[in-house]
Amino acid sequence: MDVATARPRVRPLRWLAGAALLVLAAQLVWFLVTNPRLEWPVVAEYLLEPNILAGLGMSLLLTVIAMTLGSGLGVLLAGGRLSGFKPVVWACGVYVAVFRGIPPLVQLIFWFNLGYLLPRISLGVPFGPTFASWPTNAVISSLTAAILGLTLHEAAYMAEIVRAGILAVDGGQRDAARAMGFTPRQSFVKVVLPQAMRVIIPPTGSQFISLLKGTSLVSVIAMADLLYSVQVIYNRTYQIVPLLIVACAWYLAVVTVLSLGQRRLERHFGKGQR
């Protein structure tokens, strides 16, 4: 059979699947447009409401702070797990297991109620004199508890991401760098790290997006994030669904922008790979 005159094979299952998806999409659009309980005018009214924008700003601020601190701590934990010094490896492994195993909501509530377990926070010599102390409830506010809980939780995941990225680089790359006269630091910065970033960037971007959505959990400790700001309004107006749509719209918009940024970073660090 001549390939030039060959006709593409008809795939009826694909046509049926496409038609079913088209019908479902049309039904979804019809539902969104015609259902009066969605109250789109209310959504438009509160979309740019100052309190909601302030809550969105707080969510973004918490995400940036927790991601920055968590990444820094995660790098230290990854280095500890790769150090080969057994006590450090064991301690870092226990940290990762504990903070990955406990749900972030439980961690946030625990840190917010730390004053019950530890009435005062002291600074001094272990088992020795105390130089200064403060009431725990004065130190651990909603903001402090939110940053602490999200950072410690994020650090456990970032530790595994960084460790996996470094281990993904073939050992022969380090040997080749040493043969060229590179110091261990130069080998890591110029040879290992650029290759590891191709493995580290995609899950790190996903973690950043997941952390942004996870900031909604801080509403349970009365932290004025986006979800909490929405809840304050609908507890007063009883317009629950349209205000939840406002929150969903902002989360979706920010996540979309972050996803585009993540793709650009992936293309930048994956140039040689492709």
TrEMBL record:
It is found in: Cell membrane. It is a multi-pass membrane protein. Keywords: Amino-acid transport, Cell membrane, Membrane, Transmembrane, Transmembrane helix, Transport. CDD domains: TM_PBP2. Residues 52-262 form the ABC transmembrane type-1 domain. It comes from the Bacteria. The chain crosses the membrane at residues 12-32, 52-76, 88-112, 132-153, 216-234, 240-261. The keyword Nuclease does not apply. InterPro entries: AA_ABC_transptr_permease_3TM (IPR010065), ArtM/GltK/GlnP/TcyL/YhdX-like (IPR043429), MetI-like (IPR000515), MetI-like_sf (IPR035906). Belongs to the binding-protein-dependent transport system permease family. NCBIfam families: HEQRo_perm_3TM (TIGR01726). This is Amino acid ABC transporter permease.
